[in-house]
Specification:
The complex is a heterodimer. By secondary structure, chain A is of the alpha+beta class. Chain A has three domains: about 45 residues, no CATH class; about 350 residues, no CATH class; about 70 residues. In chain A, strands 25, 26, 27, 28, 29, 30, 31, 32 and 33 form a nine-stranded mixed sheet that branches. The termini of chain A are far apart. In chain A, about 40% of the residues are buried. By secondary structure, chain B is of the alpha+beta class. Chain B has one domain. Chain B contains four helices and five strands. In chain B, strands 1, 2, 3, 4 and 5 form a five-stranded antiparallel sheet that branches. In chain B, a hairpin with a 2-residue loop joins strand 4 and strand 5. The mean pLDDT of chain B is about 95. Classes of the chains: A alpha+beta, B alpha+beta. The interface between A and B is medium-sized, with 28 and 24 residues.
Chain lengths: ~600, ~120
C-alpha cells in the first residue's frame, strides 16, 4: 500500500491520533493502529463513467451505464453545438416578441379580454353617491364616492379635492363664451382675462338620481346612462341631450334679457343686479323664448346641487365626528350673509357734504364698513338715488365720534337724511382666478361671512343675492313644474302645455329644511320641501320659507339667500313671492 | 359647531343620535325667533328619561372632551373619554404637590361622577 498519505500524528486537533491513511489503488485504506481495524473507501473520482451503473427505468434510454447514457443523449441532440443552437432557438421563442413567441401568444390571448373589460367599464361606468339618514341627518358617501375626500380651498389652491380627478367634477371648467354660446377660451388659457365674453362654467353631461326610501334620501351621480337616472340640466327643449351645460359663474349682471352675466369690458368685478322694471323673473322668462339662454331653472339647480351634495357628503366638519348634513357653509364657505349691519336704516349721514365724494357718519356705524365694499348712497338704505355702485376707497377719522368715508367716482351731495348701504357685492376677478374650478372662498373684509363663496367656479350659489329658480311655480300650495325653458314664461301654469301639476302641495311652517320629497317627470326629477325641523348645520342646513297656506295663488320660488340672511343661507328655498316681484336682493343666474 | 334652529330644546334624540346643545341664545332673524348654540352629536342607546337625568353632566363631559381635542362617538364611552381627557389635571397636580379637589373642584367632582358611570352605567 506504499507510504501513508496522512497520519493523524501530523493532523492537528484530532481526537484519534492513531489513524493512518494509505493509497491502495482504487481505494483509500484507513488503518486504526490502536484497534487494528482497517476501513476502505472507494475512490469514485477515478471511476470512469463506463463503470458507473445507470438506472434507465424512468428515462426511457437503453443505456445502463452513465457513459452509455451520455453517448445516447449526444446522439439524440447531435453535437454539443447543435444542442446549444437548438436551445437558443427555444430561448428566442420564450424571450422574443414576434410571431410564435410566448409573449405574442399571451398578448393575443389577453387582448380580447382587455377589450371586453374596457367595454364593460364603459357600460358600468362609475357611480358616486351620498345618502342622508332621515332620522338623524347623518350623511355618508356611497359607491365610488367612498374613499374620496373633499377639501375646501381658502384664498388659494393648495391640495385639491379628490373629486377633481374624477369625471364629471374633473371636467368642470370656467370658460368664456360669445352670445351664441361658442366657447372662446377656458380659464386655463393665457388669453382668458383679455378675451371679451361672458363667463360661464361648463359642466360635462352626467346622469343623476334623487330618491328616497323609509330611512334615507339618496343622491347619485353616474358618468354613464343608467335606468332610473336623468340627465337633468342637460336636456334641450326637444329632449336631446347636450354634451355640456353652461351655468353662469356669477349672478346675472343685467336684467336677464341679453346673454351676459358679466358686463364690464375689460372687467375687474362682476356686478350682481336685480331688475328694477318688470322683475328679473319675467325678464329672464322673456329671454328664454329665444331657446338659447335662460335663467337658472330647477333642473340646472338640482344638477349643480347633486354635484355639491355628493362631493361634501363624506366631509366631516371639525370638530364634529360625523357629517351632520349638507352644510355647505361649514364645508365650503359661509358666503356673503353677514352684512345686515351695513344694510341698515341706521347708517345715516351725520354731517352733510356738498360737491364731494365723501360720506360722514358715526363711528358706531362706520365700523361695519370696509375699504373695497361696494356701497349705495340714497335717501333711504334701499335707495341708490344719490350715488350708485361706488367702491369705498378710504375710511378715516373725521372727529372724535365720526368717520369720513370716501368712495370712488363723481362727486355728489349728502344731507342729514342720506343713507349709505351695502347691497350685493361684486366678485373681484382676482378671486375667480385664484380658485378657478376648486371650491372654497377668498377671505375679504376680514370675515368669512362677508366673503364670496365658490363651488367649482360657480360663485355665490348661496348668500350675496337671492336668485329666481325658473320653471317651478306654486299655485294654492301645489307645485307646478316645467322642464322646457321655452315654455316657462306663463302667467298661470295650471293646464298650460309644458307644465305639469306635481300633486305635491306642502303646507309647512318656516324652518330649517329637514327632508324633501321627490317628483319624477319625464325629463327629470325635483326634490320638493317636505318637512322642517333641522338646524343651520344639520340635515339640509338651510331655510325653507313660506311654503304654506299664508301664501296662496301664484307664487314663484327663489333660492340661496342674500347678504343679510345670516346662517339661513345655503340650500335655501323661498316660496313667498309672485313672479313679477322686484326687490334689490333678488336676481338670477344665467344658464345656456 | 354652532347650530341655529327653530326651537329651544337643550337636547334631542334623532334616531340613534343625541344632539346636545350648549346654552341656547335667542336670535330674532327676519321676524323668526331662533335659537343658537354649540352643538354636540353622539350616538346613544339611552332613553330620553336617562338623558334628561344626566343632561348637564353629559354636556360638561362633551365640552371638556372637545376642548381637549378628543372625540367621543357614543354615550357609552363618554365617562371614560372624559377621564382620559382630564387625566392631565390630576397628573399635573400630583407633580406639583397640589390637591386636585382644591385646585380643580369642578373637574374633581366630575371625575368622581365619571368613575361611577364607568362602573355602573348611566342611570
Amino acid at each position: 500500500m506504499g507510504t501513508p498519505l496522512y497520519n493523524t500524528d501530523i493532523i492537528p486537533m484530532t481526537s484519534r491520533p492513531t489513524l493512518t491513511v494509505m493509497d491502495d489503488g482504487d481505494y483509500f485504506v484507513i488503518l486504526d493502529t490502536s484497534t487494528g481495524k482497517i476501513s476502505k473507501i472507494l475512490k469514485t473520482n477515478i471511476m470512469t463513467a463506463l463503470k458507473i451503473s445507470y438506472d434507465n427505468t424512468t428515462s426511457g434510454l437503453t443505456a445502463d451505464t452513465v457513459q452509455a447514457a451520455l453517448d445516447e443523449l449526444v446522439v439524440n441532440l447531435g453535437s454539443s453545438d447543435d444542442a446549444i443552437l437548438a436551445l437558443s432557438g427555444r430561448l428566442d421563442t420564450i424571450e422574443g416578441m414576434g410571431e410564435g413567441s410566448v409573449a405574442k401568444a399571451i398578448g393575443d390571448a389577453v387582448s380580447p379580454i382587455d377589450t371586453r373589460v374596457t367595454y364593460l367599464e364603459s357600460v358600468s361606468g362609475h357611480l358616486y353617491g351620498v345618502r342622508m339618514e332621515k332620522s338623524s341627518g347623518i350623511c355618508s358617501p356611497t359607491y365610488d364616492a367612498v374613499g374620496l375626500s373633499f377639501r375646501p380651498q381658502i384664498d388659494t389652491i393648495t391640495n385639491p379635492s379628490d373629486f377633481s380627478s374624477v369625471y364629471p367634477w374633473r371636467d368642470i371648467k370656467t370658460v368664456k363664451v360669445d352670445a351664441d354660446k361658442n366657447i372662446l377660451c377656458t380659464i386655463d388659457d393665457a388669453s382668458f382675462e383679455s378675451t371679451v365674453g361672458d363667463i360661464m362654467v361648463k359642466i360635462p353631461v352626467f346622469w343623476h338620481r334623487y330618491w328616497t326610501d323609509a330611512s334615507y334620501e339618496y343622491y347619485e351621480i353616474s358618468d354613464t346612462p343608467r335606468d332610473g337616472f336623468f340627465a337633468g340640466g342637460f336636456y334641450n327643449p326637444d329632449g336631446t341631450i347636450r354634451p355640456y351645460a353652461l351655468v353662469g359663474a356669477v349672478k346675472t349682471s343685467n336684467d336677464g334679457r341679453v346673454p351676459h352675466s358679466w358686463t364690464d369690458t375689460p372687467f375687474t368685478h362682476s356686478l350682481p343686479l336685480y331688475s328694477t322694471t318688470a322683475g328679473f323673473q319675467l325678464d329672464a322668462l322673456n329671454k328664454s323664448t329665444i331657446s338659447k339662454w335662460s335663467n337658472i331653472d330647477h333642473q340646472a339647480y338640482e344638477m349643480v346641487w347633486h354635484l355639491i351634495f355628493v362631493e361634501i357628503g363624506g366631509y366631516v366638519i371639525s370638530p364634529n365626528t360625523n357629517v351632520l348634513g349638507f352644510d355647505v357653509k361649514g364645508a365650503i364657505g359661509q358666503g356673503i350673509n353677514g352684512m345686515s349691519n351695513s344694510y341698515s336704516a341706521s347708517n345715516v349721514c351725520t354731517f352733510a357734504t356738498v360737491g364731494a365724494n365723501t360720506f360722514i357718519m358715526a363711528k358706531t356705524r362706520s365700523q361695519y364698513f370696509k375699504v373695497g365694499m361696494l356701497v349705495q348712497i340714497g335717501t333711504a338704505y334701499t335707495s341708490q338715488n344719490i350715488a350708485a355702485n361706488r367702491y369705498i376707497t378710504d375710511i378715516s377719522e373725521y372727529d372724535a365720534t365720526n368717520d369720513i368715508i370716501t368712495v370712488d367716482g363723481a362727486v355728489f351731495t349728502t344731507t342729514l337724511t342720506s343713507t349709505i348701504a351695502t347691497w350685493a357685492q361684486p366678485l373681484p376677478l382676482a378671486q375667480l382666478m385664484a380658485l378657478k374650478n376648486e371650491s372654497g372662498y377668498v377671505l375679504q373684509f376680514g370675515s368669512n361671512n362677508q366673503s364670496h363663496v365658490c363651488y367649482r367656479g360657480i360663485w355665490d350659489l348661496w348668500g350675496n343675492m337671492y336668485e329666481w329658480m325658473s320653471g317651478l311655480y306654486r299655485y294654492d300650495l301645489q307645485f307646478y313644474a316645467c322642464f322646457d325653458w321655452t315654455k316657462m314664461n306663463v302667467n298661470d301654469p295650471r293646464g298650460v302645455a309644458g307644465w305639469v301639476a306635481t300633486g305635491i302641495a306642502p303646507d309647512i311652517a318656516n324652518g330649517y329644511l329637514k327632508t324633501r320629497q321627490v317628483y319624477k317627470g319625464a325629463l327629470g326629477e325635483i326634490g320638493l320641501p317636505s318637512a322642517v325641523g333641522a338646524g343651520s348645520a344639520t340635515w339640509y342646513a338651510a331655510y325653507a320659507y313660506y311654503f304654506n297656506s299664508e301664501y296662496m295663488g301664484l307664487r314663484a320660488v327663489f333660492c340661496g339667500g342674500d347678504f343679510s340672511s345670516g346662517v339661513a343661507v345655503g340650500f335655501l328655498w323661498n316660496g313667498s313671492s309672485r313672479p313679477a316681484r322686484t326687490i334689490l336682493n333678488l336676481g338670477g343666474r344665467l344658464i345656456g | 359647531m354652532v347650530n341655529r334652529k327653530s326651537d329651544n330644546k337643550q337636547f334631542e334624540i334623532h334616531g340613534e343620535y343625541l344632539h346636545i346643545y350648549d346654552t341656547l341664545t335667542e336670535i330674532i332673524n327676519d321676524e323668526q325667533t331662533e335659537y343658537e348654540g354649540e352643538l354636540y352629536v353622539v350616538k346613544t342607546d339611552l332613553t330620553e328619561q336617562v338623558i334628561e337625568n344626566n343632561y348637564p353632566v353629559m354636556l360638561s363631559f362633551l365640552q371638556k372632551i372637545r376642548e381637549q381635542g378628543k372625540q367621543c362617538l357614543h354615550t357609552k364611552d363618554l365617562a371614560q373619554t372624559y377621564l382620559v381627557a382630564t387625566d392631565y389635571i390630576s397628573n399635573k397636580c400630583y407633580e406639583l404637590g397640589l390637591s386636585v379637589e382644591q385646585e380643580h373642584p369642578n373637574e374633581f367632582a366630575l371625575r368622581q361622577t365619571a368613575r361611577q358611570i364607568v362602573r355602573h352605567g348611566w342611570r
